[in-house]
Amino acid sequence: MSKNAPHRPDGNAQDASSPLLRRAGKDLLSLALMDARNQTLRWLSVYEAALASDGWRVPVLPELSPPLWEAGHIGWFQEYWIGRHVQRQRGRACDPTGIRLASIEPHADAWYDPARAPHERRWTLDLPALQRTKDYLAATLEITLDLLDATDTDVADPDAALYFHRLALFREDMLCERFASMAQTLGLSLGAEVEGRPSPRDALRALPLQGSLAQRPPLTFAPLRWTLGLARGDGFVFDNETSAHEIALPEFEIDSQAVTWAQYADFVEDGGYDDARWWSADGWRWVQQEGRRVPRHVAQMRQGVLQSRFGVLVHLPMQQPVVHVSCYEAEAWCAWAGRRLPTEVEWEAAAHLGASRGFRWGEVWEWTASTFRPYPGFSSDPDRDYSQPCFGTHRVLRGASFATSGRMRHLKLRHFYRPERDDMFCGFRSCAA
Predict the structure, then answer these.
(1) Angstrom distance (rounded) from CA 71 to CA 78
(2) What is the pLDDT of residue 193?
(3) Contact, 177 vs 194, CB < 8 A?
(4) CA 328 to chain centre
(5) What are residue 396's phi and psi, to 5 degrees?
(6) Around Cβ 355, how many Cβ atoms within 10 Å?
(7) Residue 319 above 50 pLDDT?
(8) This prediction's pTM
(9) pLDDT (tens digit, 9 = 90+) per residue, 339-348?
(10) Which class for 147: exposed (0-12), middle (13-18), buried (19 or more C-beta within 10 A)?
(11) 255 to each of 209, 299, 300, 347, 419, how far by Cα in Å?
């Protein structure tokens, strides 16, 4: 294996991008892990082209993190839960505090463990340079693939045996989307090629810069009972998706697609950002503190939307979904329009039952009215720093964005952020009040 890049997958890359990866066996999982690492290296090339000459410096902001820390953390996470974890084949039943093997990088825990290097400290760390980071990524992947190859899946619970390999895959996919949102925040170009690797432009080929969506009427659903969440034992399940439970839903009407720029522009033109009637107390406080009068990255909204996309000002078709809005902005638009945000169970039921009736999703993450909380019967995964610290303070988003890996696109997936965040590729749809 090269010290700078993983093996190139020989199989069908489209298969490695399927949402069915939650149930993938060893061969397909191996291809997907290599594909994810290639995406990480491509993003590192983007950041190298933009930041290396300036010492890789980025502003200290809640929505940013040093890119070399993020890359190193990917390797650390994989090594911590697979390469160093002697109970890895027990899956969720392992003892997460048990003894671990030493890291191949002596300072890895001090650098990349979020418990020892919380967000605010990452700018003060003496992180290794790019080449050493790449070497660590290559070595940790090689160990991961070797251990995957040696994993015995002819056991009573093959999902347990593959649990940490699947977890590492999806965590890397999440962090690659974080690389995309940070590049948008920093205004980095996606066009440069470095060291012969293709640009992440290929990974974001669905970037909705061109074309429009035909406006579709809302969908109405009669009262129904819907099973929210997933049961263990059918492939990989995130802890915040457990456990499956049934909820009674009254009749509701929901938009068949996300709110568009044309719809949102009417709110802006009507003085929506200057009228406290439409905002929650927290939202009005936020909009005043930020001095916000249009969504993030927007330079112009009259006579068409002009928004910065990866450092380039682009005129956006008015029928595209509005993007880079906080939950506060989504709620304010709904109040102004006499609508409301859907609950996450309404969103999920409509996405499933309305698939043949024109329900469209996947361009932007969509805010919901639901506070991020554990489902009944919740039991934490060994990685207890993922979901639990965010319960009660974050809001649920559903769907996916154009930057989301195909492997992550699942109707049960719960994304979650604080309601003031607008750096992600996030929009919303509405329900009848």
Answers:
(1) 11
(2) 45
(3) no
(4) 20
(5) -80, 135
(6) 12
(7) yes
(8) 0.92
(9) 999 999 999 9
(10) middle
(11) 22, 27, 26, 10, 21
Rounded CA-CA distance 231/199 in Å is 39
> Is the separation of the CB atoms in 363 and 297 below 8 Å?
no
Question: What residues contact residue 239 under an 8 Å CB cut-off, 6+ apart?
Answer: 378, 379, 380, 381, 386, 387
* Both structure tokens of 321: 């979904």
Distance, in Å, from the CA atom of 45 to the CA atom of 203, rounded to the nearest integer, reads: 13
CB 223 within 8 A of CB 251: yes
Query: What is the spatial distance between Cα 138 and Cα 144, in angstroms, rounded to a whole number?
Result: 10
Phi/psi for 305 (5° steps) reads -95, 130
Sign of CA dihedral 20, 23, 26, 29: positive
State the chain's mean pLDDT as an integer.
Answer: 91
Which tokens belong to 91? 């899956």
* Radius of gyration over every alpha carbon of the chain, rounded to an integer in angstroms: 22
Asked whether 178 and 70 are in contact (CB, 8 A), the reply is yes
User: Is-contact 168 383, C-beta < 8 A?
Assistant: no
- Cα–Cα distance for residue pair 130/72, rounded to 1 Å: 10
Task: List beta partners, residue 432.
Answer: 339
Length of the chain: 433
